[in-house]
Each structure stands twice: as C-alpha cells, then as structure tokens.
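ARCHIVE CARD
Drawer: 12
Card no.: 0347
Subject: one protein chain, sequence and derived structure
Cross-reference: see card 0346
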Amino acid sequence: MLDNNTYNLMEQIVQESKSLWRIRNSYLRDAESCSECVEFWRKLADDKEKHIKDLEKLIAAHTSVIESARR
C-alpha cells in the first residue's frame, strides 16, 4: 500500500497528463485563429511537460524506497 504522499504524487501526474492531452488535442486547435492564445497554450503545455518530468522523478524515488523496504 502506498503512503498518502506517494499516492498524491501519482494522482497529480495523472491530472497533469490529462491536462496536457487536452491542451495538445483540443485547446491548441480551438485557438488556432488567435496567435496570442496559441502562444499561451504552448507555454502552458511546456510547463505541464516539465511538471510531469519532475513528478516522474519524485515518484521513482518514492517507489524505489517502497521496494527497498519490502525486501
């Protein structure tokens, strides 16, 4: 069983990934007539990608601790 912190990290990566998917597959297309909005969505997508990478590192660290404790 995961501790609350690890669960929260995993829940957040799911939310960030879903948001990034919506930006790439809907929001950018819907905003194509407004260059300012396209720029905003691209910047937000870049931020989401960074957050996802950061979360992946944290999750890996926490799950490796869990695996070590189980041995």
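Annotation on reverse: The CA atoms of residues 31 and 38 lie 6 Å apart. The chain has two helices and no strands.
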